[in-house]
Give the backbone structure.
Amino acid sequence: MDFTPIIIGLASFVIIGLFHPLVIWTEYYLSHKAWPLFLILGIIFCAISIFCYVNMILNTIFALIGFSSLWSIGELKHQKRRVEKGWFPKNPNRKIPYEK
């Protein structure tokens, strides 16, 4: 039996599940202007998945983290709009003010 697809599916579920609160946390504490961090992480993890072949499962997990990081760039901008609409709380102690 080959459990590779099940492991990859579970890893996808966990990684996407972890990135959702990570985007919320990042917008709350660092603001949506922290998107370059996600860009750098995305490029690094995608490059690792291409150039460092260990095994199929690990490379797929690296690619999932990379593309989840890249997807989070857009989600940060969406999260900013959700905060402006009042769907999520604003951080009152943030040094970078919310823009109108």
